[in-house]
Design goal:
By secondary structure, the chain is α+β, with helices and mostly antiparallel strands. The protein is built from three helices and five strands, in the order αααβββββ.
Length: about 180
């Protein structure tokens, strides 16, 4: 099967365009586009414990296409026969995915929080950013020494707390804080 050079060039251009757009827009999976329509998907917008595959995703498919088409174009222009062009293309695609996964892991490690344990938050004062209903969950935000805001899902044993109130963190179970109105 022969793949024309122009087809490889279009695949390269399309995959690079996809990678550029996804880099500019980010890899957000949030459902904020739905607005406040009364649906609660149980997320706080963070990606802790993401279960999506790190290898089989659209970004890596675009990297595979870019690597395959770029190396295939180079091999074809150097005079390689079709089987060699495709083998070099596969090798280039795998190399691009490997470098991409490694690079995104390096970047993700740099996004580490300065809070090493949520247990260290007990006793800190925070502000309610999403109202905490009685027998329900809301969200609190607080700032650490570096000025970085941390948001946590929160519940209250002392009744409902409206947005904007100052609260004190009394306990943390996993990533859910239990709060009480600050005195």
């Amino acid at each position: 099967m022969y793949v024309e050079t122009s087809t490889l060039a279009w695949v390269l251009a399309g995959s690079l365009l996809f990678l550029l757009v996804s880099a500019l827009l980010g890899g957000h999976h949030d459902v904020d586009a739905l607005g406040d329509c009364g649906l609660d998907f149980g997320t706080d917008g963070s990606h802790d414990g993401v279960t999506t595959s790190e290898i089989f995703n659209f970004r890596n498919l675009a990297l595979l296409a870019a690597g395959f088409s770029a190396v295939s174009l180079l091999a074809r222009n150097m005079g390689a026969k079709d089987p060699a062009v495709y083998l070099w293309g596969i090798a280039g695609g795998v190399l691009m995915i490997t470098v991409g996964v490694w690079l995104f892991r390096v970047v993700r490690r740099q996004e580490a929080s300065s809070v090493t344990s949520n247990q260290k938050l007990i006793g800190h004062v925070a502000f309610v950013t999403v109202a905490i209903p009685e027998k329900g969950f809301g969200e609190i935000s607080l700032r650490n020494v570096a000025g970085v805001a941390t948001a946590l899902p929160a519940r209250s044993d002392t009744g409902a707390i409206a947005t904007g109130f100052e609260v004190k963190i009394t306990a943390v179970a996993g990533n859910i804080a239990t709060v009480a109105r600050a005195a």
